[in-house]
Every structure is written in structure tokens, then in C-alpha cells.
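Same chain as my last thread, 123 residues:
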Amino acid sequence: MLYDGYAYMFSQLIAQIHAGITPDVMGWFVTAITITYSVIGLPAQIYKNWKRKSLEGFSNILCVLVFFTFWGWFLYGIIQSDNYIIIANAPGAVAVTVLLFQMFLYRKNPVRISAGTSAKNTL
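reply #2:
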């Protein structure tokens, strides 16, 4: 259902582009998409991690990359005084900071394998 809503919004955007879309309309459109991702997708992952007290199946590399992406855009928006960029990336910057904190909070101690012991025996 969310996909249908985005498909409709995208089709309307294409129609507006042909009709002469303004930068404000485009700015608010991409801001809405980014905020939707930030307030639905990231909090769902935060809740899942908190509930399990684990980041099993979670990509640490992706978390770090998304952290730098959101914070980079947020700071760029501040430097450029661009409210669209600031508003769009602030929720994501906060949420991904929580995910990064969880990454350190819920990390597990690595399994140590001594000489002559197979990994199968230690698990």
C-alpha cells in the first residue's frame, strides 16, 4: 500500500515536471520521502534491535555509511542554509545515531578459538 502511494506520488511528480514544477515542490517532495524513510524504517530497526538486545543480521558497515550520509547532508544543509535538506535529514541523523549507539551497546564478544580447537567445538 505504501508502494502504491509512492508510485502515485512519483507519477504526479512526472506530470508536474512536464507542467513546469517549481524547485519548492520538488524540495518538499524529496523531503517527504526522506522523512518517511527516517521515521518508519530506521525506528523499526531500532525497536527490533532493542527488543532482541542484538544486532543479528544487521550490517555494521551500512550503519556507519548511513550515519555519515545523514550527518553529512544535515551539516551541508546548515552550511548552505537549505531548510529542505536540514528538515529532511535531521530525523535520519538522530535515528542512525541511535543505531550506531546500539551497535556498540549490543555487540557480542568475539568467539576465541585456541590452537587445536575447531570452530565447531566452540559453538
